[in-house]
Amino acid sequence: MGEIIVVTSGKGGVGKTTTSANIGTGLAAAGHKVVLVDTDIGLRNLDVVMGLENRIVYDLVDVTSGNCRLKQALIKDKRFENLFLLPAAQTKDKSAVSPEQMRTLATELKEEFDYAIIDCPAGIEQGFRNAIAGADRAIVVCTPEVSAVRDADRIIGLLEAAELRNPKLIINRIRPEMVKRGDMMDISDILDILAIELIGVVPEDESIVISTNRGEPAVMDQASKAGEAYRRITRRIKGEEVTLMNLDVPLGIFDKLKKLVGIR
Amino acid sequence: MLEFISRMLGKESASSKTVAKERLRLVLVHDRASISPAMLNRLREDLIKVISNYMEIDEAALEFNLLQDDNEVALVANIPVVKMKRDYATKT
Questions:
Q1: Could you count the other beta carbons within 10 Å of the beta carbon of residue A232?
Q2: Which GO terms describe its molecular function (chain A) (predicted)?
Q3: A3-261 in CATH: which number?
């Protein structure tokens, strides 16, 4: 019996889709049978992030409305034969699917897969309610910004109201040099405010832009720092204890001087 | 310029992260307190029911509000008591 994990955030642009793609690919690389489900109907993107946009025939709405069978709509990944994508419909809107239909789909996915990763749309309306409907657990993605943390707080409240207890937090796009200067909230600042359990910290990394350009998740790139962060998150999802990545930046010349003079 | 010098000396004026954290704390106090009017109404009715077990209250004059200011949120109720119920002790 598989598990349904929803990746959500409230605010748009914090990295839900990138996170979904990397977690899903990471779990598949570890040998699990995985399906990625894009629930952002009308604004689908998980297909391009995965580099599978040319293979779409049927979509999520075709499955939930009975136009095709689940197997017909699933797109097999290029890299892993145990990884699949169920794309969102692009020409319909969020109301084309109901939470009830999503619960039915979730039951079907659990029989077929070890993990289903649900990429949730931004917002707290129907798209969000659909995405969380069949989920067993939730991952909240948040960047170290006031707006993203505020929205994450709201989402955590809504998840708990929907009986999705103990959501886990990913702090995405953290910039260690800004944290060091005191110009960006650090991990403990955000955990203080949101008071949920951390499942990973992903540094801001140019390799994410490059890997998205190519349609190849960074988790497969051994040289990518963000990729390393996602590999660790993947292992934590499976229940392993993994230490946080070391994000310390080397001391700059001014810091060294200050230290020498003993100012700090 | 002054700020630059103080930075060089390592005496940062309130760093922007501290500002961010404080602003978030305040905005979340408000966000977390925003409960729907329907829920507030249910709470009001429940409260009347419980209090009525012990005393007779003037429901029409009852004031019941969730007050928010910059730093805190408080549930403020002003409930005029008409008379105490003498029979409560025997009723339980």
A1: 20
A2: ATP binding; ATP hydrolysis activity
A3: 3.40.50.300
